[in-house]
Design brief:
The protein is mainly α. The chain has a single domain (about 40-215), classed as Up-down Bundle (Four Helix Bundle (Hemerythrin (Met), subunit A)). It is about 75% helix and about 0% strand. It contains eight helices and no strands. The chain has helices at about 5, 25-35, 40-60, 65-90, 95-120, 125-150, 160-175, 185-215. Helix 4 packs antiparallel against helix 7, helix 5 (about 95-120) runs antiparallel to helix 6 and helix 7 (about 160-175) runs antiparallel to helix 8 (about 185-215). It is globular, with a radius of gyration of 24 Å. Mean pLDDT is about 85; it is low at about 1-15.
């Protein structure tokens, strides 16, 4: 082999992590770029979340609570991912943000309506009333934030945020009606907890906005 060949620089890249492969950070960046360059849109993720929650509602009516819990969790994960993906990809639009918020309310209402139907079928009137109160409380938690932000006040306070409600309801569904663990039914306690927490959070936000507006007026 000639000196010219021996001295020719190699075109192969040096290992980035010392073992001949890409680092974890580089792999995440590559996956992120591929995802952004794809045709996937935030609206498609939002609609997938809606589909997951509709499937959960149907499974509740069919008394398949564990499967309903899984569908609800997957649908809710899509709900939480669409906003993040919108910001990360730059594909977000004002209509997309509007659609996301609207579908979130529809999805939660549909699943809770199915739960209310289950309680009504079981003859549990108190649980039906608590479910209706939960629907009202969940809507008020979202409404108070939206109305506060329209007044120029940030309003993210309160214990019953959307992720908290998802966790509580997911546990109630997966461990509901003793399907997964005999004699363990967390669905009714989950609804009572959500009813109390959403109403409490509504008052938290009302008082928070009142204080912020009073401070601004001083």
């Amino acid at each position: 082999m000639s000196d010219e060949i021996r001295q020719r620089p190699s075109r192969a890249r040096a290992p980035r992590n010392g073992r001949g492969g890409m680092t974890a950070a580089e792999m995440r960046e590559l996956a992120r770029n591929r995802l952004i360059e794809s045709r996937l849109t935030p609206n498609a993720i939002s609609l997938t979340g809606l589909l997951g929650n509709l499937v959960a509602a149907v499974l509740i009516l069919e008394h398949h609570f564990v499967l309903a819990g899984v569908a609800f969790i997957l649908g809710s994960l899509c709900d939480m991912m669409d906003g993040r993906y919108s910001r990360m990809s730059g594909k977000g639009t004002p209509f997309g943000a509007f659609l996301d918020s609207t579908l979130d309310r529809i999805e939660e209402g549909v699943v809770l309506a199915a739960i209310a139907a289950w309680f009504a079928e079981s003859g549990d009137e108190l649980a039906v009333a608590a479910t209706v109160l939960t629907v009202l409380g969940s809507l008020m938690v979202s409404y108070t934030r939206a109305r506060a932000e329209a007044l120029g006040v940030e309003c993210k306070v309160g214990v019953a945020s959307r992720p908290v409600r998802v966790v509580i309801l997911s546990a109630g569904l997966v461990f509901g009606a003793g399907e997964l663990i005999p004699d363990v039914d967390l669905l009714e306690p989950a609804i009572y907890a959500m009813a109390a927490l959403t109403i409490f959070t509504t008052f938290q936000r009302v008082f928070h906005v009142r204080r912020q507006l009073q401070r601004a007026a001083v």
